[in-house]
Amino acid sequence: MSNFQSPLEAFLHWEANSPNQVFLKQPIKGKLRTYTFAEAGNEARRIAAALQDYNLPDESHVALLSKNCAHWMMADLAIMMAGYVSIPIYPTLNDISIQQILEHSNSKVIIIGKLDNYSAQKSGIKNIPKICVDLYDENDGESWEEIVNKTQPLEDVTLPSLDKLHTIIYTSGTTGTPKGVMHTVGNFIKSANIMKNVMNLPQGSRFFSYLPLAHVAERMGIATHGFVIGAEFSFPESLDSFASDLEQCQPHIFFAVPRIWAKFQEKILEKMPKKKLSILLTIPILNGIIKKKLKQKLGLKEAKFIISGAAPLSVNLMYWYKKIGVEILQGYGMTEDCIISHFNLPNENMIGTVGKRLSTVQTKLSVEGEVLIKNDCLMTGYYKAPELTASVFTEDGYLKTGDIGEYNHEGYLTITGRVKDQFKTDKGKYISPSPIELNFSKNNSIEQICIVGTGIPQPIALITLSELGKSKTKNLLIQSLKNSVKEINKDLSKHEKIEKIIIMKEDWSVDNGMTTPTLKVKRNSIEKVHQPLYKSWFDMEDKVIFE
């Protein structure tokens, strides 16, 4: 497999050399539709021709609003073939956020694919042509299927230069307004070639794509990496069918965020209590059978790379998975550095760290301990924001990640917090909440946590409950949370000790604006809603308070 010069060149190679190989597998209404490289290429070429028929200026921006599905991939290819720049939009965003991105990005056309609630989103799309996929029961604008039926495929596809703008990725943003990160064709193909060389997966490897493709990790590490190696992509049909779709696929690479690993554990322990599982794993013959069965059920029996990213994963959870034969490799990267940064690898995996820097990466720590990164695929900047762009680069061209970290003597990096997440209690001392939050995640009654403390003498923990937490009696739950506080406070400095736990009435979700589409807690949004109550909660007598 040679190193291709663009994601498009990679696809065209497989279209020409493996036309009958299955490329996309789309479950829909209980049936499976498959697309070979030739079939996907044919549809993408016809959509590309239709896009060119709009007579848009060169390198115009085309938006893509859809959950992960076969048509997301084909739409992405069509945008590349037509010579345009893709603007992927999270499928969970509301109409206001969609309108904001479409206007800010100057998108000229939008392709609408598989969505859960398009009727609530459509008012955010104003005055631009729409191409809609009938297969997913959306019929607003031109029909994808009709275009495919009546339009001649684009025969001559021009390959882009490395410095051409490839995509603008709007960050999900744990703080403030989303920013448009600009990446060139060169950035994407260099990143994908690095992934290919590190993982060395063969052509036809199975990939399971479910995390939002509007996010850099899925777009780069799964989609573009898959284009380059000629992978076969499967997608879940729905949340209900997710587990069986994943089990059926048995991907060779699987990527998840911490919330998903916690959910998987919860489901396993529902069927087999912790104590029983621990005992069975100590019995030699049974140990192997159970591990095999669990990996099969999770869909990870064939996985060569099982990766966690986007937020820190609890060390306890990683050791628990290791016990059942699932070795999770934690990695670290950002939209701005095209995720080429630090990774743990199968033979070099230090739990609790985000791994060593990749060989193509230069890194150093600032005086404050902020991780600074330089590689060959750093963003060209934030769209329409030159001042903001200048503020995130050092004079010698390193990207300021905003993360505080430390290296051990073997070169493994541990992220200890975010520069912007630090806050002062009214004692005037700074607290970095991330490590404390990670410690709390050992308690499986807790689903999400946000340590806060601006304007009060000691920090408090705002939490939402997991399904397990919700099923406990009030007394048992309170006791479990008090035990966690006692245990964690033992190792904290006096000013860091947690004074109270506040149990939120409502779960934090994308819908209520409290988490990003990749399920990271949005500290700013939580603070905005709850900060006026910190003082009254702090003054209450109880250690565990129900909102």
Would you kindly provide a written description of the structure presented here, covering whatever features stand out?
The protein is an alpha/beta fold and 547 residues long. It has three domains: 7-234, 3-Layer(aba) Sandwich (Rossmann fold); 253-301 and 304-418, ANL, N-terminal domain (Rossmann fold); 423-546, ANL, C-terminal domain (GMP Synthetase, Chain A, domain 3), CATH 3.30.300. Helix content is 36%, strand content 21%. The chain contains 19 helices and 27 strands. Strands 4-3-5-6-7 form a five-stranded parallel sheet, sandwiched between helices. It has a five-stranded mixed sheet with strand order 12-13-14-15-16. It has a four-stranded mixed sheet with strand order 2-1-11-10, sandwiched between helices. α2 packs across α3 and α7 packs across α8 (216-229). The mean pLDDT is 91.
